[in-house]
Write a structure and sequence with these properties.
Helix content is about 70%, strand content about 0%. The chain is mostly helical.
Length: about 150
């Protein structure tokens, strides 16, 4: 009697594509678990580096830009059409809403609708840049095929 190869011990490739999203969400959760006092130690340094950003926390843009790219990896870059792009943005905003709710339980932190807006802008910026990159690659590829 033959036994099947133990291919079940290796996770399927599509599941591995979602690993970056899980890691980015874990990092966002860990950062949002920090108290306001802990965040005040490095946020002023960043705002000193960029003086025009005193009333603005760019971390939301960067974090949700990264989460958006990670979700796009999960869906597969080549399949990032308009509906999947909108799904990526909605997933990011939904995760941002849960993150803001989570912050309501962290000392010296509070939920902020403006942070959720910044999360959505960061996610949308990533999707738009990915679409532009994909479009440029497709266009460059079609030019390579048209040459004789």
């Amino acid at each position: 009697m033959q036994t099947q190869a133990t291919s079940s011990s290796k996770p399927p490739r599509p599941l591995l594509r979602w690993l970056p999203a899980i890691l980015v969400m874990a990092a966002i959760f860990a950062l949002s678990s920090r108290t306001g006092g802990q965040l005040d130690t490095w946020l002023p340094w960043f705002q000193d580096l960029f003086p025009g950003l005193t009333s603005f926390n760019p971390v939301h843009y960067f974090a949700y830009f990264g989460l958006s790219v990670a979700f796009a990896i999960g869906f597969g870059f080549s399949r990032l059409n308009v509906s999947r792009g909108l799904a990526v943005i909605l997933l990011c905003v939904a995760y941002g809403a849960t993150d803001e709710w989570h912050q309501s339980f962290v000392p010296l932190r509070s939920p902020d609708v403006n942070d959720l807006l910044h999360d959505g802008i960061g996610a949308a910026a990533a999707v738009i840049l990915l679409w532009l990159w994909r479009f440029a690659r497709m266009r460059r590829g079609s030019r390579n095929y048209s040459r004789s």
